[in-house]
C-alpha cells in the first residue's frame, strides 16, 4: 500500500475525511489503473460511515467498480444499498437494471427501469435525460424478446422526447422484425430522412439494395461508433515484429460471437479441423454466450486454442490477440450480432479479414480483405467494397455432418394441405418488405392451390401478415406458420416444401443452404449488394443457376410457372439430390483448401509490403446521396440507371464544393466509368427478365 493510500485510510478510520474527498482519491486511483485500491477505499469508508448522508454516492461508485471486476452480484447489492438510502437517485436505477441484464435477469431489468420512469417527477432537463436513458434500455433489451412491441413503444416515446439516433436505430430494427410497413413511419418528430440516417448498416441491407450506400454507411457507423482507438498496433509495429518472428506456422484467429448453436455456427462447425495444420495454427476468440452446446463444444475441440473473451474489455482482448502473435484475424461478426468492432480497430494482427458475418463492406481503414466468390462479388462490383476482394469457389462453408432429426413428417402433421403447392419462405421476418410481400401474394393469386409456409413470428406478427394478405386479395388461410423447433427437427420438415421463395433486398444465407441440403429448390433474384446475391451464389454452387433471376418480373413468372408444374419441380429436386455430394456448395474440403491458399496469399502480401489500402474518399458524400435517393416508392434494385443516379449527384456536389478524386465514380473529372452490368449468375444461367 502506497503512503498516499495509507494516509487516506488513516483519515477514514479517524473520521477526518468526508465522502467527496474519498471519491476524489478513488477517482485518482482509478485513473492510474489502481481500481482495486479504489475499491478498498470505498469499502473502508462505508465500514465506518454507513449512515452518512452521502453513503448512497459511495455505494453507487462501489457498484460501478464491482461491475468492472465482473462482480455483478456485488454490484447489485451496492446499487440496492444506494437506493435504500436515496430512492430518487436515478443513476442507481439505471445501473441496477443494466446489472440485472448482465446477469440474465431481463424481467428484473425491465421492471427496474419501468419503476424508475414511474417515479420521475415533473419534466426538467435531468428527468428527461433519465427517462430517455431508461426507455432506451427497455427498448434495447426487449428488442430480442417476444415483447418487441413493448420495446417499440418505449423507443417511440424516447424518440418523441429528444430524437436520439441510437433509439431510432433500435426502433427501426424492431419495426423490421414486426413487419410494420412502411418501416420509416409511425413516430412523431423525426423526418423520414433522419430515421434513415440513423439506420444501422445491418438493418440497411434489409431495407435497400444500394451497395454504395451500404459501403458509405459502414464507414459512417465505424466513425461514429468506434473511431480511432486510444490503443492500436500500427502496421509499422507489425513489420518490426516480423523481423523478430521465429519461423513458424501462420497463426489465424477467428473473432466471433457465433461459436454456438446459431446460423453462423451451423455453417462453420466442420471447417476448423480441416485447416492444414502443417501451415496454420488456429485460434478462436469467443465473445459467444457460454452455452456449452454441441456446436460450441465442437469448435473448442477442433481449434488449437479457444480463448473466451466474453468478460474481457476490448483493449485487453486486442492486447491478448497481439500477444498471441496472430498473423491474420478474421472478423466473423462485422456489424452483426454482439459485434466488437473496436477490437478490429486496434489492429491487433497484421492482416484483417471480413468474412461471412456481415453481408457487405465494412468501410473501415482496418479491414484489408473481404472473402467472396465470383457470384457474390463479380469483378464489375468491386467498386462497392473498401476491402480487397478475394474469392473462394463458393464463399459459404457448410457442415456436412449437420444433425437432421429422424422424423417422418407428413403435411398433415405440419399443418399443410396434402395436395397444395407449398412455397416455403423460412427467412427471418426482418427480411420481408412490403414490395416483396406483394410479389408473394401475386404468386399465390396465380397458383390456385398454392400456400405460403412461413416461420411463426408470434400471434401478433402472424395476424399482421394475414391482414396484409387480405389487402392483396389472398385469403388468410393460405398463409401457414411453422412452429419454431430445434434446428435438427426444423431441417427434417424442409422436404415438405415444393419451392423455397427467397426475399430481396436481403436474401437467404444459412436458410438457403439448409433448403438445398434438404433437397428443396431455391428461387431467388440477384441484385447488386452482397446480401442480395448470397442466395444466388448458393444456388449456382448447388448446380441450380437457372433458378437465379435478374429481375423481379422474371422471379414472379418463374415462381408461377414452377408452382403450376409439378414435373418441372421434380426435375430440380432430382438434380439437387444428384449434385449434393459433389457440388461446390457442400464441398467443405475444397473450400478450406482454397481458403488456406487465400490466407497464405494474404500473409505473403503482408511480408512483401503489399497490404491493401482502402479508398475511403468521399464516403460522407456517398452516404448523403444514397440517403437522398432512397424512397419507399421505388426499389433501387430495379433501377437500371443506378450508377448514373450517383454520378449526377456527385457532379452537383462538386459544383458546390470540389470533391477529391476516388476510385469509384468520381475520378476528379467529368469522365464517366462504364455502368456496372446487371447482376447475373456466375455461369450465365439466369433467365433474362421480360
TrEMBL record:
TPR repeats lie at residues 56-89. Gene3D superfamilies: 3.40.50.11380, Glycogen Phosphorylase B, Tetratricopeptide repeat domain. Residues 657-690 are annotated as: Disordered. Pfam families: Glyco_transf_41 (PF13844). GO terms for molecular function: protein O-acetylglucosaminyltransferase activity. It comes from the Bacteria. PROSITE patterns: TPR. Pathway: Protein modification; protein glycosylation. Belongs to the glycosyltransferase 41 family. O-GlcNAc transferase subfamily. Coiled coil: none annotated. InterPro entries: OGT/SEC/SPY_C, TPR-like_helical_dom_sf, TPR_rpt. Keywords: Glycosyltransferase, Repeat, TPR repeat, Transferase. The keyword Repeat applies. This is protein O-GlcNAc transferase. The keyword Glycosyltransferase applies. Residues 245-393, 409-593 form the O-GlcNAc transferase C-terminal domain. Transmembrane segments: none annotated. Its EC number is 2.4.1.255. It comes from Paramagnetospirillum caucaseum.
